[in-house]
Amino acid sequence: MTDEHASAPGAAGSVAPDLPAAFLDAIAEGDPRAAEAAARLAWFELAGRCATPTGEALRRLDDASLEESPLLSMLAGLCELEAGRESEGALLRIARAVEAAQDDRRGVMAIDRALILSAESARHQRHGRLDEANDVARAALAHAREATTRLRSVPLSDLFTQIGVALHYTGEVDLALEAFSAGQAVAPTTPGPVDATEIAGLAAVFAYEGDIALAARYLDHARAAGAGRALTPAGAVNDWVAASMIELERFDGDGVLARLESIDTEVPFEQRLALDIVAAMARMVSGDPATALAGLEAQMRSIELHSGRSVPPSSVAFTRSMLQLSLGNVRVASAIVESDFAVGPTREVARARIELVRGHPGSAFRRLAELSTDPLPLRTAAEASAIETAALLRRRGSTRADAAIDYLGALLLRTGLRMPLAFLPHADFDRVVAGLHAAGHGALLAGLPARSVLPDLVSAEALTARERTVLSALMDSGSAADIARQLYVSPNTVKSQLRSIYRKLGAASRQEAIMIAVERQLLSPSDEADAEQDPHD
């Protein structure tokens, strides 16, 4: 800001000299169109300092001028609410702005519609109106996508991020990832001069989406921007979440938890939930999924009691399902996937993982085959690739295994992701890592304490078709002799097959073998009836 702007008689700069010069000049000249254009370019900076000084500057425009611009009307309404002034008038301004943004007959620019509706979605979300927040965020995303084809000089990356956060916390995980991906596509590789809290928030978003290298770059910029200044509670949480997600890709759960005590937990609902989710994942990586699950569920209940807002089941569905799998509770994990995951690729990948855990590589393949041919978010793509590679390596002689390993190695190298490997059963983790080493990708895990967080619920040596037949007969018969008569074989043959079944299942008795078979659905119709057949034959 020049001295001229700071000292001009009657200029809006005398109220708020540190706001963008173009915005202050337009306010001083009483030009709502110019003020609108300037607000469009600096929306998040102005909205982030809404009560003051933005609100003070906007009060220099008369009501008629504000009514000419839905964007300025929305901004003025938000600022009045934040400042605690004229609440009825503020709500009326916001309602009119939202109405204009939703009216296709009004000549409101797509970017203005997206900015207005994303702000309205955030407002609904803060008041616990999640259904309304979701509907408005979806509309904002459609308008933001339209704006990307026309504009490049507006804060599109921040806009997509805000929309993505709203969608994520209203349960639309896959749509949120699409918004994050769209934001990443238009984001500069080096952040501009914005607030450290916002940059750290973007770092967390990129880490969540799966671009760890870009997340680390934004985190470095956030810390440089905030050097020498105390972070706000929200900024500290953004920094912790971004850094923690990066550290988890290095299997450093203990390091994440060691820094947890420094975080002020008196933060908004959404950030409290993000903090709890990452902390639970860190405890799982550190080898304590039981404590992680108990802590997460207690925190969810605490959030509900203190805020009066229910935690959307879909926002914690992935974490809860992974913790249940880590504890060996396959049926519970599967129920969470079916009831709490939104329809989309994230659910299909989760279903495929459960099939792999149950020892059904062919079923896992079929789940992955149902994925859309559209590009997937990076993290989802990496998890799908890891599961596909594991399933192929279970099928000896598969002609696709080498290509799958090469693709997985290249994808992990590009993204910086490593946790998709940890989300494989232990034996699959060992096979995939060995395959990556053999293919020249051994450096991916060099120096890392890499391990699977999932137990081997099904032996690496799968039951043969004959053993499954014996196991099925065991469900109805009480002795080897009965099974032998039923299958027209000798009792000694049945006893030998039972010993093999017990060994593979880790069972010590008939009752335990039956319980394991039911838990893992080893005799379900979707079981691998032709275990030696390649799924692509």
UniProtKB/TrEMBL annotation:
What keywords does the record list, in alphabetical order?
A: DNA-binding, Transcription, Transcription regulation
Q: Does the keyword Isomerase apply?
A: no
Keyword Transcription regulation belongs to the record: yes
Q: Which GO BP terms, alphabetically?
A: regulation of DNA-templated transcription
Q: Which PROSITE patterns does this entry report, sorted A to Z?
A: HTH_LUXR_2 (PS50043)
Q: What superkingdom does the record give?
A: Bacteria
Q: Where is the HTH luxR-type domain?
A: 456-521
Could you tell me which SMART domains the record lists for this protein? HTH_LUXR (SM00421)
Recorded hits in Pfam families, A to Z, give: GerE (PF00196)
Query: Which molecular-function annotations from GO does this UniProt entry contain?
Result: DNA binding
Note the SUPFAM superfamilies from the entry.
C-terminal effector domain of the bipartite response regulators
Q: Which PANTHER family match?
A: DNA-BINDING TRANSCRIPTIONAL ACTIVATOR DEVR_DOSR
What is the protein's given name? Helix-turn-helix transcriptional regulator
Q: Which organism is it from?
A: Microbacterium esteraromaticum
